[in-house]
Specification:
Blueprint (H helix, E strand, L loop, with lengths): L2 H13 L5 H30 L8 E5 L2 E4 L2 H23 L10 H24 L14 H22 L6 H23 L5 H26 L2 H5 L1
Antiparallel strand pairs: 1-2
Helix pairs in contact: 2-5, 2-6, 3-4, 3-6, 4-6, 4-7, 5-6, 5-7, 6-7
Length: 232
């Protein structure tokens, strides 16, 4: 640790009283509940307004006289796998790891890249086994899914940034990891709502939001999580 960084950390610690463990746990539980309620609420409102009251959609009309339907087991498999990846993403983004200074730059970069890749690979590999969901849906390019992902992830992103509070090093990368974790949580709900597994649709409507959230999280992380910003 450089002398300048050490001085900054010590100054931040002296300037801000340390809360008790119980207070921290209570605050984080409250923020977690707010994130869950905000994300699920946004999802339900969006789904009800855009899909005739269907929160979970198994299929739809692909073209004239052609209807495709997902099996319940496919939905359970893809959403369950996405839930597992989202849990790992949250642990990765919100826990500091073995070092009090947080995760290394290389570790953060790997996590930011691998989480979207893992979600995408799981969705495609599961859908390939069922065939029809991989078909092209000409009228569903992915813009609604893009909007839904960003809307659902907005509340959790802000709540998770508040829960993390500050990080001594790599605030932008830590913010990006939180953005990706928020997007991973949104992916789980999006998987329930969207029956499309066509690869171009997934890249635009499901993967691109994670990239946007990573960039937004990086900007907010630099502004809100940096110790220097908290000392101003």
């Amino acid at each position: 640790m450089s002398a300048e960084l050490k001085a900054t950390v010590l100054a931040a610690a002296a300037a801000e009283p340390s809360p008790t463990r119980a207070a921290v746990n209570h605050r984080n539980i409250l923020l977690g509940l707010l994130a869950a309620v905000g994300g699920v609420g946004a999802f339900v409102i969006f789904a009800l307004l855009t899909s005739d009251g269907e929160v979970v959609r198994l299929g739809g009309e692909v073209g004239p006289h052609r209807h495709l339907e997902r099996s319940v087991w496919l939905v359970v498999t893809t959403a369950g796998g996405a839930l597992g990846v989202a849990a790992i993403a949250l642990w990765f983004a919100l826990c500091r790891g073995r070092s009090m200074l947080g995760r290394s730059r290389r570790g953060l970069l790997y996590g930011i890249a691998l989480i979207p890749l893992g979600l995408f690979a799981w969705k495609v590999s599961c859908s390939l086994a069922f065939g029809d969901p991989m078909a092209e849906w000409p009228e569903r390019a992915g813009l609604k899914c893009l909007s839904l992902s960003l809307l659902v992830a907005a509340g959790p992103l802000l709540a998770f940034l508040a829960a993390r509070r500050s990080t001594p090093v790599q605030p932008a990368l830590n913010g990006a990891a939180i953005g990706v974790a928020s997007g991973a949580c949104a992916w789980v709900l999006l998987d329930l709502w969207c029956p499309v597994a066509f690869v171009p649709h997934l890249l635009l409507g499901h993967v691109l939001p994670l990239c946007i959230l990573a960039g937004t999280g990086a900007l907010l992380g630099q502004a809100l999580l940096s110790l220097r910003s908290r000392l101003r």
